[in-house]
Amino acid sequence: MALTRRAALFGAGAAVGVLGSRWMGPQNPSLDGVKVIMPAGEAKTLNDASLLSETPVFRHTVIQGAPDLAPSTWLFDALRKELAEAASENRPVNLSAARHSMGGQSIPRDGHAITLDMPAIFDVDSDTGTYRALAGTRWHQVIAALDPLGLSPKVMQSNADFGVASTFSVNAHGWPMPFGPMGSTVRSVQMMLADGSLITASRSENADLFGAAMGGYGLIGLITELEVEAVPNQLLEPTFQTMPASDFAAAFVKTADGSVPMAYGRLNIDREGFFDDAMLVTYRPIAGDIPPAAGSGFLSKASRAIFRAQPGNEWVKRRRWGIETGIGAWLAGASSRSSLMNEPVITLDDRDPTRTDILHEYFVSPDRFGDFVAAAKAIIPGSYQELLNITLRWVAEDPVSMLSYAPSGPRIASVLLFSQEMTARAEADMERMTRQMIDAVLAIGGSYYLPYRPHATVDQFRRCYGGAEEFAALKRRVDPGLRLRNALWDNYLAKV
Q: Which domains, from first to last, does the chain contain?
């Protein structure tokens, strides 16, 4: 079996991916400010960031609001039209922005795939430190709107290309400290249910729907607007500390007292010293003028050649660790909080058509991090995969999301980026390794993240996500026709 050529792009710190395909077809005339782009021809498929999940769809509609058009009934009418047409033929519907999944989770098989690409229309309340954003708004638009007001997203994904509502829908986290996932900073959401009714959900209003929509992958409702918390922007200076990996968890816990606005960790990945050494990077406030938010810095761009030379080259992996802990740390300077998060996913893009980037993510309590390291050392080096990077982040307890990966106590999130050969052999090996890693993490009370390759078994899914049955029951109650469906539902939730 030959696997499709990869065209989508990933960076080392990315938490999730972007859509790897684009429709080439005629544009319909504007409908009250909404541009609807339809596919042409007979072959109608969508793929994901890995380009390993080509899926047939009935139609892909991209809704683009005019820059000077405030959201009102035009968006609701467009969504209701899609829902009604899909219902008439019993087809599924799914709404996305940057399309996060790496396993086709957001693609409705043989259904209506809707992508929102909305203008940056915001309502910022500096007094309460909140802002309202349309679904489809990207994080770089949020940063551009908040930055002149001295504000910054409280939590966002590690890359700025992705959609705000999509981040909520996949329950993604970032590396600001000491918070939980981005959904923990959302005050309320407005969403359209499968029957076309519009509701508001929050922790006090329709709380069950709010908890299900947070990390619900668009299966509960089509999110149209969110109220989200912001924080003051800051000028931050980094400190780099190296240590044995066995000491990392204790050091990381100390940074979670609220005094450190941003922090992350790394582990050495060369096979000779695999996961033996760690680096903790902390950012603390300093006095000084805060420059306007910028994008990728020189070090991020300059590191691409070294980063992409790692597959099959242990010497390069050792040199990269030496650079990161040596001259890279020495050259790093102060940045604004917003600039640190305003990183596009393309910075460390992969230009090799024979390989694809695949992410894993595991969450374990700090006191079991040593067990996670031991399990990874026992499993990953024996695989056929090339590990390019591991980033360690702090995630506070998340008791709200029905599909929470941190339901009891804080977790250390380990984000692993692999370079996978585009062959059937490599795909089979990745599936085997993934299941071994999930079993090992579940055995120590940890969890795995859902937006990546669907290699987990249904049994592993059930064991990891204890709220799955409650979620599926609620889903069937508010959407009895199962109109809002995608690959996550088809592969897992429909079977619990």
A: 235-461 (3.30.70.2520)
